[in-house]
Each structure stands twice: as structure tokens, then as C-alpha cells.
Amino acid sequence: MILAVLYCLLWSFQTSAGHFPRACVSSKNLMEKECCPPWSGDGSPCGQLSGRGSCQNILLSNAPLGPQFPFTGVDDRESWPSIFYNRTCQCSGNFTGFDCGNCKFGFWGPNCTDRRLLVRRNIFDLSAPEKDKFFAYLTLAKHTISSDYVIPIGTYGQMKNGSTPMFSDINIYDLFVWIHYYVSMDALLGGSEIWRDIDFAHEAPAFLPWHRLFLLRWEQEIQKLTGDENFTIPYWDWRDAEKCDICTDEYMGGQHPANPNLLSPASFFSSWQIICSRLEEYNSHQSLCNGMPEGPLRRNPGNHDKSRTPRLPSSADVEFCLSLTQYESGSMDKAANFSFRNTLEGFASPLTGIADASQSSMHNALHIYMNGTMSQVQGSANDPIFLLHHAFVDSIFEQWLRRHHPLQEVYPEANVPIGHNRESYMVPFIPLYRNGDFFISSKDLGYDYSYLQDSGKVYFLSEELLNLVLPIYFEIAQNLMLLQCYS
Questions:
Q1: In terms of Cα–Cα distance, which of 127, 376, 370, 124 is closest to 255?
Q2: Which in 69, 183, 249, 302 has the greatest CB count within 10 A?
């Protein structure tokens, strides 16, 4: 009976966005450049018969870009998503999704009219059952193929302009690893030529809005997978940490006794395989990461280049960032001075606000400190610490928004690195979201942080439901781990 209930739950939740919807990767879709699949509720494209949305031409921003990428027509991510699609579903009201079958962030119910506020909590405030549930969810995502989305394993040109689709299945966890790789990969210029000074999610204004959407999408996929609509990502408050206090087997994994670069065999994540880590190989072959396993997670926290990152961020560092009144300044890239975004990202000093190419601080400091898989930008999301880290970074962004109350016009409209203009669509999400859409309070997107709360009801999974669901997820996770050990 319990399994039957859970089976129904697992199929009753849908997510709101993705990369390449499975329904839109046929040669017909690609050659016609249209992604307007039917909504299952009425069988019409974009749920048009039910008033959910309609298939519309995509209107791209024509605002000028900065000088950092001096090419045109060489990268599939330019003017996203126009290389692949020029028509997608435009949803009405509170509906969203590649087929308008889902609700916007913060809205729930069959007609997307119910508002709820979910709360992200400190991982150290989770009870043992809640923490173990989180790990079980991660394991389940790592072993469940996405039913909705696939990844391209070739460029549009290699697909012969869509006539020969090249896509592959991928598990739900690795889908997001691949997304983070794809948004930050080098530009493939043909032959053996590449261009490294390009990134649609880092080193420029979209860093914070893009990762905000990334985390929301990830939460929604887990909510769908598990049927736990109250699931939120926990955060790791690393202010004033003297060491990686979550790098224990009780939490995110301790060190292997024989090889300090690997995780302890007792860790929940010691058997995990990573993807998208062989960047030079992809560049030399002018190929994309294909999602195949490339070895174990690597992490050796604290044994990093201390001349670049002398210490982890302090409370004073965070407070200095929050005191900066400008979101962006100057070149609006990693050389920007007195920019809140650039200082929080870690390219400017949290003592002075001046850009310093020799130092990695704040957000960047945590990546360098982990000294392993998480230290390489494109593959960093392989390490589940990535999620906890970025949830806390997002909370600092939220503090800044609440303190300074910026208008959306504060986010740069033009003359920033490619993909970072206010009206640019975020790579590689479908349905489409603009960078400026996430330059708003988290409360408007349906979530808050426990340490920032002032009032309002907190939504957690009830203890009764937790006790009902958790043993089943543990059994699934244990069976998956046993299968992996003997395979």
C-alpha cells in the first residue's frame, strides 16, 4: 500500500524547466526550430486549449555586448536558444514549463494559484533522519535517468544542422552537472582553436541570478523524483570556518585513509563517478562532454595553494560585501572594482573591493580550498558540496537585495560579457528565463532562508510522513549502492 501511494506521488509532481526536453529533439523539431510540445492535460501544444499558453516566436535582445567575445556565429550558445529553436511555448499567468504544464516558482496547485514559502535550512540544523533523507535523495537522483530531458553530445554543426540529432540519456543529478559544464565550457572555434574567455554563468553580472535559477531547478527535480514537494537544499554556513566541517563521513564525506585525494570508503559518496572533467580532451577533439563516467570524486580540503587562498571567508568579509552599494561597476567582469557581484564571486578583495587576479576569495575560495573535483569550474557541480555552498552564496545575494532594495534596472542592460545582459536568456534553460527575472527577492520565488526569516509559516516535511517515506528511500539507496559495488 505504501509503495502504491509513493508511486502515485512520484508521478504527481512536475518540474518547470530543463535543458533539452526529450519531446523537442527529433530532426523535425531541430530543423523546424520549434519546441512547442503538447501538454498532457489536453493534448494541445503548450496547453493552448486550456488557456495555459501558446507557441510563439522568440524575441531576442539586441542590446550590445561587451568586447570579451569578439566572434559571431561560432558558438551554439550565442543568442540562446536561437541556434536550436526560434519558437517555444510562451505560458500565461502562473503557468510555466516547456509545455506550460507546470507552475512558476512559488506557485502550486492544479491551477497554479496557491502560494507557499519553503525554507532552506542550515545542514547542521537538520535532524539525523532529515540529513539521511537528503543523502538518500541525492543517491536516488544519481541513479535515476531523467524522463524529461536529454543532453546533446554533439554541436549543432556536428548534428548537420539538426538533420542528425545527437542526444543521450542522463541521470537527474548528472543532468545538472552537465548543465553547469555546458554553460561555462570554452568556445569551440573549429580545427584545434578554442576561446577561453567566455562563460555564460560566471565572471559577470549573471553569476548570481543564473545560479539562483540552477538551484531552484535542482530542487524542483528532486521534488518531482521523490514526491516530497517540501524539499529544499540545505546550506553550509562557512563563515569563520577553520576547516571543512562538513567533510566528515557523517555529512559530505571524510578523507580516504590511504589516499587523501579520495573520499573515505564510509562516505555516502565514495562510489560516485564524475562526468565532464576532461576539458582539454574535449577541446582537442572539438567535442562535448557526453556524460560518461570519468572516475571518482576527488577532494583534499585545505591542501591547496595557500598563496592564492590563504583562508576561508570570515563574517567580516561577508559584511564588507554586503556594504557595497553597486551590483556592478566598470568593465562588469572579473576586473570590476567595488562591485558586490565581483567581490562575492571572489575576484575582488573582501577587504578593499579592488579586483586582484592573484587571489581567490569568497565564493571562489571555497572551490579552491576543496582542492579536487570542485576546484575545476566546468566539473565542480559533481561534488554535492557544490549545492550547499551555492545555497549559502545565494543567501548572501538575498541579504544584499533586502538591504539595498535595487530596482531591476540596476542589473546591467547592455555592454556586459556575452549572455549576461539583463534581457539575455539564460543558457541552457528551456523554458526561457531572462537574467533580470531572478534579480528579485527569494520570497517572490517561493523560498527563504532559516537564518534570514522574520515571520511567516515554515513548511517542513511532517515527522509522520518522514517516518513513512524515509525507510523506503534508504532501502532504494542501499540496493543501488550494493548493485554498484558488485557491478
A1: 370
A2: 183
Secondary structure of residue 220 in the 3-state scheme: helix
Q: Whole-prediction pTM value?
A: 0.91
The mean pLDDT of 54-72, rounded to a whole number, is 97
> What backbone torsions phi and psi does residue 296 show, to the nearest 5 degrees?
-80, 165
Whether 8 is in a domain gets the answer yes
Inside any domain, residue 442: yes
- Separation of alpha carbons 472 and 228, rounded Å: 13
DSSP state string for 230-287: T----B---TT-SS-TT-STTTT--B-SS-TTBB-TTSTTTTPBP-S--HHHHHHHT-
Helix (H) or strand (E) holding 189: strand 187-190
Distance between CA atoms of 119 and 55, rounded to whole angstroms? Answer: 34
Determine the Cα–Cα distance for residues 60 and 80; give it in Å rounded to an integer.
8
Q: What is the per-residue pLDDT across 172-201, written as a single tens digit (0 to 9) for each? A: 999 999 999 999 999 999 988 999 999 999
Q: What is the mean pLDDT of residues 257-269?
A: 96
Q: How far apart are CA 134 and CA 448, in angstroms?
A: 18
Provide the number of structural domains found in the chain: 1
Are the beta carbons of 237 and 122 closer than 8 angstroms?
Answer: yes
Give me the CATH number covering residue 449. Answer: 1.10.1280.10
Strand spans (E) along 10-78 = 20-21, 34-35, 53-57
- Residue 84 maps to a domain: no
In a domain, 214, yes or no: yes
Residue with cell 527529433: 26
Residues comprising the chain, all counted: 487
Q: Which domain holds residue 154?
A: 2-15+117-303+371-486
Closest CA to 200 of 420, 18, 11, 403: 420
- Whether the CB-CB separation of 407 and 340 falls below 8 Å is answered with no
Hey, what amino acid is at 291? G
Q: What is the mean pLDDT of residues 120-132?
A: 98
